[in-house]
Structure formats: structure tokens, C-alpha cells
Amino acid sequence: MLNQAIDSLHDKYLAPEWSHSALVTIDTQRDFTLDGAVAQIPGTMEVIPAMKALLQEFRKCGLPVFHVVRLYKTDGSNVDICRKSAIESGISMASPDSEGSQLVEELLPDSYIKLDSETLLNGFLQEIASREWIIYKPRFGAFYQTSLQMHLESLKINTLVFCGCNFPNCPRTSIYEASERDFRIVLARDSISGLYDKGIEEMRNIGVSVMFSEDIISNLKTLCAK
Predict the structure, then answer these.
(1) In angstroms, what CA-CA distances link 156 with 12, 28, 128, 223?
(2) Residue with more model confidence, 226 or 215
(3) Is residue 1 in some structural domain?
(4) Is residue 78 part of a domain?
């Protein structure tokens, strides 16, 4: 049992509670997503339409959305050690106030919205629409040295739906952090880049509900229709 996938959708401790859910997007910034960008993650642009559909349904239902982002200061002072040498050598990646640091336009509630780097780097959330925020993380995990957990608890959220950029790194780390904090977790498998079969198996083994976006949306539509 402990080495097998868990039927999370029918487990009383793991099944998503959609009325207490929030959507978490990870690193959907131009430098990581756009074709030809400095740190482009292949396959990310291809999942943007499914992510956009998820976002639209969460917004329609009035459920919280958190966009988690990276910002790398050009002096390397806030950069994780695996990328510090690259940034110090002059590579510009998700630099504060740069075009590449911005969220991709398709996922924004309004196209004019820009990241407020000063607010984010000082550890505060930037509200960009009703019940929709941007939050900066200094490392791979969305909970590491951030106030995300506090805000989720204040909103009485117990279920997190994850989507975004490059499953092996930041989304995967954030999911494990969420599991450590006893959140119910859903991974939108067609709304995340870099996902592979073994990763799906590993997620299911720790009780993550791995679902297609259309099934998540269907549950949200049912919720909103009540």
C-alpha cells in the first residue's frame, strides 16, 4: 500500500474540497516561457491555453489565485547558488522590472499589469485583481521564506491546484512543501511543463490528485452552479 498510488479522489483526507481551493501558478514569466527567451523552458507555451482556461474558471468562481514568481537581482545577492555564477557573469534572467520578469500576458486579468518588484522583494503580496495576487519566492519552493501559508490559512484554503513552469524544479518542490503542510493537492497535468510519467507516479504516491484541466474545470462549474 505505501509504495502504490493512492486513490486520492476518494480518500477523506486527500480528496479536493473545491469550495476551499486556490490556484497556484508557478514561474509563468516571459524569460521562462516565451520562445527564444534567455531561460526558455520547452513546452511551457504549449500549456498556456490550458492554464488560461483554469484561471478563467477560478476567477468566475471567485476562488483565490496566487502567481508565484522569481526575481533575480543583477548583483546575485538573492540568487540560489546553482544560478549565482551565471547571474554574476552578466546573464540577465527575470531581473526586477525587466520585460522578461513579467507574467505572460495571456494569464493576466488585465494586460497593463506589471510586477511591483519593490513590493514583492520586500516580502509583500501584490494584489492584481479581486482575490488574485503575485508573490515572490527566493528559492524553488513557493513556501520557502514566503507568507503564502499564512495567506492561505487566512482564506481558509485547504486545497491547492498547481500549474505552471517546469515540473522537476519549482512546481515539484512547492508540491512537496504543500504536502508537508497537510494541504490537499491537485496537479493539473496538462497545464504544467516538464511533466513526465515517473513524476506523475511519484505525485500519486504522496496523495496528489493528478487531473486534466477539463476535469478540474468541470468540478468548479458544478461548484459555481450551486
Answers:
(1) 18, 25, 20, 17
(2) 215
(3) no
(4) yes
Residue 18 covered by a domain:
yes
Strands, DSSP E only, in the chain? 21-26, 65-69, 126-129, 132-136, 159-164, 184-192, 209-211
The CATH number assigned to the domain holding 132 equals 3.40.50.850
Over residues 153-198, the pLDDT tens digits come to 999 999 999 999 999 999 999 999 999 999 999 999 999 999 999 9
Closest CA to 29 of 97, 84, 100: 100
Alpha carbon distance 114, 83 (integer Å): 25
In a domain, 3, yes or no: no
Helix axes 213-225 and 44-61, enclosed angle (nearest 10): 10
* Domain extent at residue 13: 8-225
* Alpha-carbon span 5 to 220, nearest angstrom: 25
Please give the tally of structural domains in the chain: 1
Q: What is the pLDDT of residue 89?
A: 92
Q: Read off φ and ψ for residue 166, nearest 5 degrees.
A: 70, 80
pLDDT of 33-61, one tens digit each?
998 889 999 999 999 999 999 999 999 99
